[in-house]
Amino acid sequence: MSDELVQIETPFAFNEENQREFDELIGRYPIKEAAMLPTLHIAQKQAGYITPAVMKYVAEQLEVTVMKVKDVVTFYPMFFEEPVGEYVIRVCHTLPCALRDCKVVLDHLKAKLDTDIASETNLAKGTTADGKFTLMKVECLASCDVAPVIMINDDLYKNLTPEKVDELLAKLAS
Amino acid sequence: MVEERRILYEHLDVPDINTFDVFRQYDGYTRFEKAIAEYQPEEIAKMVLDSGLKGRGGAGFSTGEKWSFVPRDIEPRYLCCNADESEPGTFSNRYVLEKNPHLLIEGILICCYAMGIETTYVYIRGEFTLGKKMLDAAIKEAYEKGYLGKDVRGTGLNIDIYTHPGAGAYICGEETGLIESLEGKRGQPRNKPPFPAVEGVFRKPTVVQNVETLCNLPFIVGNGVEWYTQMGPTYADTRFDPPKPDANTGTKLYCISGDVNEPGVYELDLGLTCTELIEVAGGLRGEEVKAVIPGGSSAPILTHYELDTRLDFTSLTLAKSMLGSGGIIVMNETRNIVDCLLNIMKFYAHESCGQCTPCRWGTPWVRDIVQRIADGDGRKETITRPKFGVAENGRWGDTGETEEIYEDLDLLESVANNIANVDTMTWNTICVFGIAVSWPAVSYMRKFRPEFEAAIREGKLVTLPVAEATVPPEENYAYQQRFIPKEFADL
Question: At what angle do helices B337-351 and B357-374 cross, to 10 degrees?
Fold first, then answer.
């Protein structure tokens, strides 16, 4: 509780570029509240994760209660309420990927990064000690034809094998 | 062998088709221009109705009919394009968005013109960052060229398209969940009625259509209804007098994945069989087909006895399954069905939105039962219960016989059926997520019961040979989950 209070006091505000993006966004909807998801995406991009201060700021911008923002943040898996690594690795483990051995890829990533898999309530568990990577399992990424797939931040990587994972990690580490 | 018929995907691999100029070289926007020059809005709506186009998102509801429910005297009206492609096994929309976004814009323009809509939101799933980027760029170009914005091409129409990113929740692919999410709330589905066509986003009439459905519109307008209806089978629904045509017209973007040699999207006329589709996709990877999921992970499974089932809306409904979003997942003889069900149930337990109690509690419960069986801890006690099936009166019910069943299997069926009952097709939840959970749970268990029983008996996962693992269809209630009169001609 006390931690959260401290964080609220660390104010958050959009930087100039994001403010412009937000201003453009808000004109698209007849009610401000509808801009919630895109606004939270922008805020998360800037802040890294959704802190109580971010929620407070977004609530003010959209003229809703902070509780409403929290309500939304907790519903959607793509919003993080804890810090995550520089690279968020999402490993698809739904049936089509499972039929194509996503488990091998996941186990390899776990061993290679020396970390556990993050859960939605405990992201730190899947984050490497140096804070560079967060490893998480996600549901279908809609690329079943090129399974197994992973997403690293915004990019999709297809037809993965342990060798390809090694190459990718080497590239990201450099 | 069945030939691919590429219409939506025809120019998908043309370099730079995502740019306005190249798209224009391939007849881009000419169909929209034809629509505004030659037809009144009502005529377009009539064409879509006559074409028999069925929504490609999952429910397979007639698009023209859906449009006819929209009250034209309430302003403003909205179009929501559902690009929240999350059904496991489905990936055709992604390619449209990433490679040919102008085609979607043209489809949206035609829909907006036909329905007198000025604002469209494309709800695009949060993970589709590339797709959103490509679509945003295409929308920007369309604005610059005067195909979007105020007074489109000098016609006096004002049409705006905005993309709206989701944030990783499967339930937002359900149309009312999508609407709630678009309004900036948790994506929890609404009770229907009122249907979105009457009261949708911002409490105004809203047309919700899948990407693939909208991409069909330019071709229906461009080539005419007659051309369109030649593709795919049209059955006769003899419950009506005179028989009502039951159209399965057009092509479908079949997404095939799992144990085939060349997984991918294949655009084919509706109505080919499972066997033919597997052949088109480079044949089976493995010796024998064990099971096929015909319409995304929510669809009831088909066994090797049912491989000649035609993959269209009507035929699959009669086979007590569904075409859904057209995501076909093939499993070969090495797969364990208990393990596959566990994977799917983990998905649903994770994705339940938590609004309705039967689903919120039921989905994890089903998952836990399957997990227990897969871990070898399935309860070995058996019970004797009445055997259900086709009763004497021809309806679903008690057959008067009894059967022995493991307690856990009875529990699995009972919990799933209390979320949504697959036999009576009634659900205790607000949306059809409930039936999407119990359909796989019950159909896998009934059709592959020997494999579930073996796992409980042996205390570990046992993969049985295909013939032993599958319950044969002769008079078996596994194949008779629902009552749909078999009164369709020409099947």
Answer: 150
CATH of B20-231, one of 3.30.450.20, 3.40.50.2300, 2.60.40.10, 3.40.50.11540: 3.40.50.11540
Candidates 3.40.50.920, 1.10.10.10, 2.40.160.20, 3.10.20.600; correct CATH number of B252-332? 3.10.20.600
pLDDT of B382 > 60? The answer is yes
Mean pLDDT, to the nearest integer, of B337-360?
96
Domain coordinates of chain B in residue numbers? Answer: 20-231, 252-332, 337-489
Cβ of residue B259 closer than 8 Å to a chain A Cβ: yes
DSSP A83: -
* Residue A57 and residue A69 in contact, taking contact as beta carbons nearer than 8 Å: no
If one counts every other C-beta atom within 10 angstroms of the C-beta of residue B411, the result is: 17
Q: Across chain A, how many H-helices and E-strands are there?
A: 8, 4
Looking at residue B401, its pLDDT comes to 87
Say which CATH number the domain at A141 has. 3.40.30.10
ipTM beyond cut 0.85: yes
- Flag whether A38 is in a domain: yes
The alpha-carbon gap from A135 to the nearest alpha carbon of chain B, in Å, equals 16
Nearest chain A residue to B95 by CA: give it.
Answer: A143
**Chain A from 111 to 130: CB within 8 A of any B CB:** none
- Restricting to B residues 346-405, those with a Cβ less than 8 Å away from any Cβ of A are 347, 350-351, 353
Q: What angle do CA B105, B108, B114 make, to 5 degrees?
A: 145
Q: Say if B327 is an interface residue toward chain A (CB within 8 Å).
A: yes
Q: How far apart are CA A168 and CA B331, in angstroms?
A: 30
Dist CA B124 CA B111 (whole Å): 18
| Chain A stretch 3-22, residues whose beta carbon is closer than 8 A to a beta carbon of chain B | none
Tell me, what DSSP letter sits at residue A146? Answer: G
Measured between beta carbons, the chain A residues lying within 8 angstroms of B350 are: 139
A to B CB pairs, distance under 8 Å:
139
Phi and psi at residue B402, to the nearest 5°: -125, 160
Tens-binned pLDDT, residue by residue, of chain A (174 aa): 455 555 555 789 999 999 999 999 999 999 999 999 999 999 999 999 999 999 999 999 999 999 999 999 999 999 999 999 999 999 999 999 999 999 999 999 999 999 999 998 899 999 999 999 999 999 999 999 999 999 999 999 999 999 999 999 999 987
The alpha carbon of residue A113 is apart from the nearest alpha carbon of chain B, in Å, by 23
Nearest by Cα to A93 from B28, B339, B461: B339
Give the range of the structural domain holding residue A100, as residue numbers without chain letter: 87-173
